[in-house]
Design goal:
CATH superfamily: Uracil-DNA glycosylase-like domain
Strand order of the largest sheet: 1-3-2-4-6-5
Mean pLDDT: 90
Largest sheet: 6 strands, mixed
Shape: globular
Structural class: alpha/beta
Bound molecules: uracil
Number of domains: 1
Number of helices: 11
CATH topology: Uracil-DNA Glycosylase, subunit E
Oligomer: single chain
CATH architecture: 3-Layer(aba) Sandwich
Number of strands: 6
Distance between the termini: 52 Å
Length: about 230
């Protein structure tokens, strides 16, 4: 497939031709230099289809499934993690391993329901081999998909789990322990960096000031903010 054919997907005249949609979406943006403009996707399905065929970075060569997202596509809270691990790569669903199970417990403790209140996704949609941190190139190749997800879900609150998620979305390179639990604005949206649940798994203590204790403080602040929006 030539670059010309791929680029034509994003040309308005190509989008309005009478070609059936499923054929158009076979023209996938396989190179990171090919833009995916805001408004490319009307729904999550074609975005998911693209992610599963995507070769915009090297992670496409080793994935089993692209891990796009789960939860309510109209949720008021969007949680963004770093990238899929082994369980996620196998199932195609984000946060289903041990870290995900802990995250579910934390959310349930403040009566946040992942089917109703939450949409969960990651900075990169494909598993970095050995669960390494995704590279800046991988993050920027995948970013248009994330921006489209944010546009489609249109959440009131974005939670960024861990430093890679914060840096990947906002470019803020500060350490997570400095900025967790603080509200920040990105692109006119309310965001809060929180600790990554995998970090909590490595720290058993529940004492005041421990990662688990800090997460408990932060999630209660998030719950209160959502209640404000809902009242
Ligand atoms: N860690 C993440 O950041 N994302 C997942 O989907 C799973 C574990």
């Amino acid at each position: 497939m030539s670059n010309g054919e791929q680029l034509s997907l994003f040309d308005q005249s190509a989008l309005t031709k009478s070609t059936p949609t499923n054929t158009q979406f076979q023209l996938i943006p396989t190179h990171a230099k090919i833009p995916i403009p805001s408004g490319t996707y009307d729904t999550i399905e074609p975005l998911t289809e693209h992610c599963n065929r995507c070769q915009r970075c090297e992670l496409g060569a080793t994935r089993t499934h692209a891990v796009v997202g789960r939860g309510n596509l109209k949720a008021p809270i969007m949680i963004i993690g770093e990238g899929p691990g082994q369980n996620e790569d196998e199932t195609g669903l984000p946060f289903v391993g041990k870290a995900g199970q802990l995250l579910e417990k934390i959310l349930a403790a403040v009566k946040l329901d992942t089917e109703k209140d939450i949409y969960i996704c990651n900075i990169v949609k494909c598993r970095p081999p050995g669960n390494r941190v995704p590279t800046p190139e991988e993050i920027s190749a995948c970013k248009p998909y994330l921006l489209e997800q944010i546009r489609l879900v249109d959440p009131k609150i974005i939670l960024l789990t861990g430093a890679t998620a914060v840096k990947g979305l906002t470019g803020d390179k500060r350490g997570i322990t400095k900025i967790r639990g603080t509200w920040m604005e990105w692109d006119g949206r309310l965001c809060m960096p929180i600790l990554h649940p995998a970090y909590l798994l490595r720290n058993a203590s529940r004492e005041q000031g421990s990662p688990k204790w800090l997460m408990w403080q932060d999630i209660q602040v998030v719950r209160a903010k959502l209640d404000e929006f809902l009242s």
